[in-house]
Structures are given as structure tokens and as C-alpha cells.
Amino acid sequence: MPDRRQPDPSTDDNPFAAPPEGRPDQPWQPRQPQGPRGGGPSGPGPDPGSEPGGPARWDPMDPVQRRARYAMLAGMWGFFFGIFGIPSVGLLLGALAMYWGISALRGRPATPADPAKGTPAQPGGLSSLGPAARPQRAAAISGLVSATLALLLAGTSYGLQLAYKDFYVCRDDALTQTAELQCNDLLPDNMIGDVLKVQR
């Protein structure tokens, strides 16, 4: 009958397995991949969250990536607020999304190589993110598109309120539904008037 205290070869790579008997406990360290990139005992392994060209995953500490995500979220919600008839919030979120999207696309400036320190030249813009540049560029562009739509909706809403100010004042001051329906006479007889008029 085999000794149960012997280490099982199938659990050698299990990070949750107990250490063999007699070996002292060691502090946790991230696993380093073995391969031609320089991992293993003889050399430092690469960061599991990065690649030579830059971070490959979402890094919330990177301001460029944060602005790209902020642009996408702010533009989306600004568009929704514009559709739901709250142009003030849509205008604010659209302006913020436009700012964040442009600053994310511009990214950080390029840095020249420094032979004294041995640091290579780093590209500017989103290309400095390496593999993470593509999703962040898509997020920034979608944020700019939705921000443009949100700003157009807010501008259209404010433009209609200025063009048909008498109708809006009459509708807001009406105390009865009959008086509110009489405000429809202040609207033009076209598609815009059909959309804005008070329904019976």
C-alpha cells in the first residue's frame, strides 16, 4: 500500500496544495511563466498583467485607459438623458465625454530614448499602451460618437425651446387641460408642431 504522505506528482503545479512535509512555509509569490522570454529560476519573469509592448489588460491606474472608459460611459448616459428629455444632464455628460474621449485619443506624449539610462524611446498616444490600445481606442471613439449625439439632442431641445418659447410658456402656465390644448394654436402646422403639441 503506497504511503499517503508522499507528494502527489499531479498536484505539483497546484498553488493551493499543501507543501511537502519538512519544507518551511514560504510567502506567496506570483507564478512566473517558463519559456524563452526569460522566466524561471535563472531570470526574472514578465509581469503576468503586461507584455513587452505595454499592458495587455484593463489597468484602472492608467489615466489614458480611465479617460477612454469614462468617455464611453458618459457619452452613453448623455445620449440616454437626451432621449428621455433631460437636456441639461445630457449636455453636461456629452461635454465631459467629448473632453475625455479627445484626451484619451491624444494619450501621453512620446518620450525619446535615453542612452545614459538605457531606456528606449516610447511612442505617444494610444500606441504607447501596446496590446491594450485597440479596446481603449474603440471605447474612446464610441464615447465621442455618443457624445456628439448627446450634444446634438441637447442643442435641438434648447433650440426648440427658444424657437417656440410662447408655446412652452403657455403650456407651463396652463391650469386646465382645456387651456393647455389651446396652446397648440401657437405651433406651426408641420411635423414639428405635430410632435410638440399637447395630446388630447
Describe this structure in words.
The protein has 200 residues and is mainly alpha-helical. It contains six helices and two strands, in the order ββαααααα. A two-stranded antiparallel ribbon has the order 1-2.
Low-confidence stretches: 33-44, 46-55
Largest sheet: 2 strands, antiparallel
Cα(first) to Cα(last) distance is 90 Å
Q: How much helicity do the residues have?
A: 40-55%
Which secondary-structure class do the elements indicate?
mainly alpha
Widest sheet, order of strands: 1-2
Order of helices and strands: EEHHHHHH
How much is the radius of gyration in Å? 30 Å
C-alpha geometry: elongated
Q: What does the average pLDDT come to?
A: 75
How much strand?
A: under 5%
Number of helices: 6
E-strand count: 2
In short:
This protein is mostly helical and 200 residues long. The chain contains 6 helices and 2 strands, in the order ββαααααα.
Properties at a glance:
mainly alpha; two-stranded antiparallel sheet; 200 residues
How would you summarize the topology of this molecule?
Elements: E1 50-51, E2 54-55, H1 63-83, H2 87-106, H3 133-163, H4 165-173, H5 177-182, H6 191-196
